[in-house]
Design a protein that fits this description.
6-stranded antiparallel beta sheet, 6 helices, OB fold (Dihydrolipoamide Acetyltransferase, E2P), alpha+beta, elongated, 400 residues, 33% strand, 21% helix, 6-stranded mixed beta sheet
């Protein structure tokens, strides 16, 4: 048996870990929940649907995802919402917004990246399924949840910056747009819900008030066997709950321990004891995990979002083309061909082609001089072939 002093040190460590709270992160997470509930209450009866914590594959990295705080599906389109619990004055510019005190900033380029990738996921899926000829408009907004937030401008370009009270103004993003048909809305909801199936860990705080992180338990994990069951095997285990057994009276005579209640997919439960030195892989969307994981002593609940190791997010990376006929975009000259024409890189791993028939009859050598590799050009999309992943381009009228 361990000594009296050692047992009470262990007890204190278990209690501190169980009750510790990260107030900054909790405030942000609670802000997201408050924003969602507020929008659901006011816009839900008007046919809006809201999904939180949607994890979208990042097209610029082979591994990793970024999180969208709230995805709102309206009768006319989709709004990607970032929620910020920033206090005080916030300066808004063309590049983004920045907290005057504290120096925290948020570039609007992130919103554009999210619009781009969600479009790449939804547009080909909608077109190829036949529910519509094109995807509905995708917009973005930022909602500030701190009561002292004060912005210098509530609109910058196509982006809305709103506080909690006027957050329903996201409706105005779709003024003049046509309504989606029911088949398209249902298809979008079904598709996006695949990206909201995260694993959750509540590893701090009492009851349901502690900090909850969501993401994915890494699949390169090592097994953790308890009572002959790998508790990290999501195909067999739906989750588990951990409770510290460290009452004051018990600690007088016995060593505190951690009790685990394992919830199986068959609805059976198994109770056992685990070592306080055990660790589980860290989860956090888009970033990965710490090599040593987090100690089980600081975990209260873990629930798996999926029943299989096959993650639908892994099959959506770089699938689709986010552009439609008539879109005017900026790209970079990437190459030339004497028969095909001028290749324009529109974004990483995605090129379009200006056919040779639309270019000046100058010959390939002169074309290379006129449009050197790396030159930034404006182009207009003239045709998109989603089945063959091809994009036909031209110069906008008046451009050369």
């Amino acid at each position: 048996m361990t000594g009296f002093h050692t047992r009470f040190q262990l007890r204190r460590r278990m209690i501190d870990s169980y009750e510790e709270r990260n107030h900054g992160e909790e405030a942000g997470l609670k802000g997201e929940e408050i924003a969602r509930k507020n929008l659901e209450k006011k816009l839900g009866p008007q046919g809006w649907h809201f999904l939180t914590g949607v994890l979208i594959p990042d097209p610029n990295r082979p591994v990793g995802r970024f999180e969208i705080d709230i995805v709102a599906i309206s009768p006319k389109g989709i709004v990607l919402i970032e929620v910020k619990h920033w206090k005080g004055k916030i300066e808004v510019s063309e590049d983004g917004m920045k907290q005057t005190k504290g120096g925290v900033d948020y570039p609007f380029g992130r919103l554009d990246d999210r619009i781009n990738q969600v479009s790449r996921i939804l547009r080909p899926s909608i077109i190829l399924s036949g529910v519509a000829e094109d995807s509905p408009p995708i917009k973005a907004a930022i909602i500030l949840t701190h009561r002292s937030s004060e912005v210098s401008a509530d609109t910058m370009g196509q982006h809305k910056i709103l506080n909690l009270k006027n957050s329903t103004a996201i409706k105005s993003l779709f003024d003049g747009e046509d309504k989606m048909n029911n088949e398209t809305r249902n298809h979008i909801l079904e598709k996006l819900m695949l990206f909201g199936t995260w694993d959750t860990i509540q590893h701090k705080g009492r009851e349901e008030s502690g900090l909850i992180r969501w993401g994915q338990i890494p699949e390169e994990k090592q097994e953790m066997i308890v009572e002959g069951i790998d508790i990290l095997d999501r195909t067999r285990v739906s989750g588990f709950t951990i409770e510290p057994i460290c009452g004051w009276f018990r600690t007088l005579f016995k060593t505190p321990y951690l009790k685990i209640l394992i919830k199986l997919r068959t609805n059976e439960t198994i109770e056992s004891e685990i070592s306080i030195d055990s660790r589980i892989p860290w989860i956090q969307p888009g970033i990965g995990h710490m090599s040593e994981g987090i100690p089980l002593i600081g975990v209260k609940h873990l629930d798996y979002g999926r029943e299989t190791d096959e993650d639908p997010r892994d099959f959506a990376r770089l699938e689709g083309i986010p552009y439609s006929k008539g879109d005017v975009i900026r790209g970079t000259v990437d190459g030339w061909h004497d028969k095909h024409g001028l290749f324009i890189e529109l974004q990483p791993n995605m090129n379009g082609l200006i056919p040779m028939s639309l270019l000046p009859s100058l010959g390939l050598d002169n074309l290379k001089i006129l449009y050197p590799r790396g030159t930034s050009v404006r182009v207009v999309v003239t045709r998109v072939d989603h089945r063959r992943s091809r994009i036909a381009l031209n110069f906008p009228e008046g451009d050369e």
